[in-house]
Amino acid sequence: MAFVRLSVLSYENTAIRPHVLGRFRDLLGATARHPSMLCYLDNYLSRKDTVVSGVRKLGLNENYGRELMELHTLGVTAGYSQDDVVAAARCFTGWTIDGLRISPEQTRGKFVYAAADHDTEPKKVFGLELPAGGGIEDGEKLLDYLAAHPATARFVSTKLARRYVSDDPPAALIDRCAQTFSSTGGDIRKVMRTVFESPEFWSEESARKLKTPFEYVVSCLRATGADLESAEPGLTWHLDNMGMRPYLCTPPTGYSDRGADWLSPSYVHRLNFALDLGNDTIQGVKVGLAATISRLGGTPTSAASVAAFFNREVFGGRLSPRTLDAVKVPASQAPTTLAKVAGLVLASPEMQWK
What we know:
The protein is mainly alpha-helical. It folds into three domains: 2-147, no CATH class; 150-207; 213-352, no CATH class. Helix content is 49%, strand content 6%. The strands form four sheets. Strands 1-2 form a two-stranded antiparallel ribbon. A two-stranded antiparallel ribbon has the order 3-4. A two-stranded antiparallel sheet has the order 5-6. Helix 4 (63-72) packs across helix 5 (82-91). The longest helix is centred in the first third of the chain and has 15 residues, at 2-16. The two termini are 33 Å apart.
């Protein structure tokens, strides 16, 4: 796990970001070969089973084969079996990391294919049949097959619609996104266009989806014009308290995209963060509220004017009378008073919605 933590930024920068608006198959292939994924799901240890002195020695690790279908492509309800999981894992035997086991002539810490460890027997995964004698292409063919499968189109479309529209996205939107996915060969950019141009995305329901802690923190930084010098230790400490420290989600499912899952007692930490941000006491973050408000045409002369500024510039006039009443404090030029108003506005219910 230490290796995974050391390589996770490389994983994001080289496997995810270059393909995030490209073809899904390219994204899938980049993640499958990245050392961070190979180590995280133990595929770097996976090799064909062998027989020594009549005793069968198990070398196969099923983790990546299982998560590839359950979380990365088809989805758990697609109808594959345990036999499919085993066969999928066999396709990726020999996909490993140099320097941890083999090949000193290769660059340490990089993906390498160990042909001697690959299971060359015939395989059948879901609807894909692979003949005996295959090599690294077994894994590549399986990735091709899974990336193009209709269940993958629907599964990925559901995840995107849930992330950007609602916790329970409409079936009609998922259908349209899946159709775009299939007809474009998994072009993520075009699927995202389908999402963003949909009436569902612009609906009131979409605007009432609760932000994740990370989304909430980022939106607060943008709203205040904060200058981020370093996320450590201040922001990461607050995110940790909210339950979403970056890069430290242990389960392979990742942090939840369902807003409802973030309705918990940890919500109080959002209030603490908002007040700390308003008071400019978060290490690594600089907030000059008075300067920001003045620069954008506001008048930082009273609590009422600060609340009015945020209501106009951040919320488009949508702060409720109840929220505006809650942030009323005696008018004052004191920075602590203005900071308190800003903190209360940022902690308001309206700020929690996307």
